Amino acid sequence: MKFGYFDDKAKEYVITTPHTPLPWINYLGSNDFFSLISNTCGGYSFYKDAKLLRITRYRYNNIPADSNGKYYYINDDGVIWNPGTMPSATETDTYECRHGLGYSRFCSSKNNLKAELLVFVPSDASCEINCLKLKNNSETEKNISLFSYVEFCLWNAVDDASNFQRNLSIGEVEVQGSTIYHKTEYRERRKHYSFFTVNTQVDNYDTNRDAFLGAGNGNAFPEAVCKKKCSNSIASGWYPIAAHQIDLTLLPGEEKEFVFMLGYCENPADDKWEAPGIINKTSAKALIERFNTMEKAMQAFAELKNYWETLLARFAVVSENEHIDRMANIWNQYQCMVTFNMSRSASYYESGTGRGMGFRDSCQDLLGFVHLIPERARERIIDIASTQFPDGSAYHQYQPLTKQGNLDVGSGFNDDPLWLIAAVAAYIKETGDYGILDVQVPFDCKKGTEVPLFEHLEKSFYYTVTHLGPHKLPLIGRADWNDCLNLNCFSSEPGESFQTTGPSEGPVAESVFIAGMFVKYGKEFEELCERTGHTELAKEAGKAVDEMYQAVLDNGWDGEWFLRAYDAQSEKVGSKECEEGKIFIEPQGFCVMAGIGKEEGIAEKALDSVNELLETKYGIMILQPAYTRYHLELGEITSYPPGYKENAGIFCHNNPWISIAETVLGRGNRAFEVYRKICPSYIEEISDIHRTEPYVYSQMIAGADAPGFGEAKNSWLTGTAAWTFVNLSQALLGILPGYDGLIVDPCLPETFGDFKVNRHFRGADYHIEIHKPKGVQKGVRWIEVDGERINGNQIPMVNGRNEYHVIVQMG
């Protein structure tokens, strides 16, 4: 069952009913100011940091769900409704929500009154613009009262939701004309404020939530809206809001339009309040002036659309498959950009108050957006590396505003260091910028600890080399990629804080997954060493990689698949000897991606075991059989019910690893089948089962052991976005950056036909035409560049050339 459709020409997903299984959201903003908005206008806004600079309130686990956002109430002769239907939930005569690239449109009508709402964040301004049009399609005059409504958060979202004894005394606002300023905490050191304004004279306003809603009332039918009368209340302490009242008359066929704006401003640190306690509004007035007419707003919207068109054109495919073209050209790249902005910090599943940016997460995300914004990818790498410790380990998470590590989570995830090598290698392949390795980067953001970035990579590499267990495999630490696989941990009860074993006992738990990572990214480090003149270090790295490869063969192979790990007592995890959790997906994907077992003929066995034991109609499960009881020696992974999350759920994030691994073996049919099963465009028809948005990837789908088999959770902010784009663009379509040029090496199903790819790479545009005979899965017979045959499948770069025309014959 579907609840909408793709409009590929407009690059929009069109939702045709407000009654979607879950709120289906969009992200607005591409720099510092961001908003989340659902298909019923729920959501929230923040500046840079969803925890520390939250502008509007949102209540998770609310009833009814998703009932706080930026709303417009229309009172048309006593009938109260909203353009996005919520929060009044009045059924409209027509409804449509179009989520586009950085914007959302709502078009609804009720009793011959049409409302069109366009919501977007300009590409270069710290504000959200709402363009609202009302049109009378009846044959009689309409007298309407229009109300706007936003509820301000008191900046720190955690404190806002908990410190009521203080917060109910600090709310402050200021009203000047049609602009309502939220200046809570301005009198402190922060010097920031927000505002909500409209480009017309208002009849009344409210800034006190209780005055607008009515005592004890919810936001579905505010008392002021029902009475058609705001009271010009001024919040003092308590709950500050911004609500405008605009009374208007619409003749038959007449249309009126308004521009509302939610903005964020900062004044200089030494700025003084104007007496008596009035903020300096210079920056706000300048921002308002930029967008205070519909013409100016629409110009900003046109610039936003051009920004996305230009950005996504850096990789574009034309094939016979609409699903591939749709995901590659629009939604997969768009989701990669959202994960660049958010990491895992702010969604409808992550409240924005805890995780912040992830070290591992952000490094992986970079793989999906480095081709789009290489300059900003460079900045992100420096930010990530700055949080690393001198021994090569790292804070697992850090706050985006402060770049300080999250002490609640800390470090000890022993896969983290290697992801930095992956990110830097991907960046240098994309840009050829070896100069980044010379940038001075601190440890733990401390001044005076700066060393070249290359030394950070060296620390990352040797952190694994110096942390090996009894089987010469990497120590897992607190966990590896699977945060819930806590093999060195003991606690008296499930859910208690995990404690590592004492020094006499270890910790000695080892990860075969990290071993696969080390072989794959250790080779990248070796290559970087050679290319930067670190010859002896390259030899050492190569030797360490070879030894790890052998350790996996000796101690990480279980006969039909790769082991997952050894626990703190050196017992096997992910083995046929185990009662539950016999096989895990992660090492099968990463070990084969690293080339382990290919020559020995065991890589095929591992992937065949995945197909036989982990495959479902909705994707590949993370493990089988599911754990049916809590295992102290395995940790949090067994705290989930069977079929959910890390306990045998379908983790979309690592399904691409299997697809990529299949392309390593040249099995295009199987690789594409793995890709197809979790691809949003392909599974749009089961939106009633899947429940999350059909235009973006989710983190997880409930596995075969779960009562909700096939139900997805945690959409948008997931490493699935980056890894599926790497899989699609580089492994399947086969257009991948190399250190010395662009490489062409497709691996696709036998039935996949010819296709074209336009790829921007190192300042040049590559127009690639690939001829793929039916029956062929992998292999390039010849490549012609600008009319001349080349040797191999790497396109030589020519200084000064900014355009290449490439013909590829597979066979």
From TrEMBL:
InterPro entries: 6-hairpin_glycosidase_sf, 6hp_glycosidase-like_sf, Gal_mutarotase_sf_dom, GH65_N, GH94_catalytic, GH94_Enzymes, GH94N_CBP, Glyco_hydrolase_94_b-supersand. Keywords: Glycosyltransferase, Transferase. Its EC number is 2.4.1.280. The keyword Glycosyltransferase applies. CDD domains: GH94N_CBP_like. It comes from the Bacteria. Residues 11-292 form the Glycosyl hydrolase 94 supersandwich domain. GO terms for molecular function: carbohydrate binding; glycosyltransferase activity. Signal peptide: none annotated. Residues 307-734 form the Glycosyl hydrolase 94 catalytic domain. It is an enzyme of class 2 (transferase). Pfam families: GH94_b-supersand, Glyco_hydro_94. SMART domains: CBM_X. One of its GO terms (biological process) is carbohydrate metabolic process. PANTHER family: CELLOBIONIC ACID PHOSPHORYLASE (PTHR37469:SF2), CELLOBIONIC ACID PHOSPHORYLASE-RELATED (PTHR37469). This is Cellobiose phosphorylase. The gene is chbP_1.
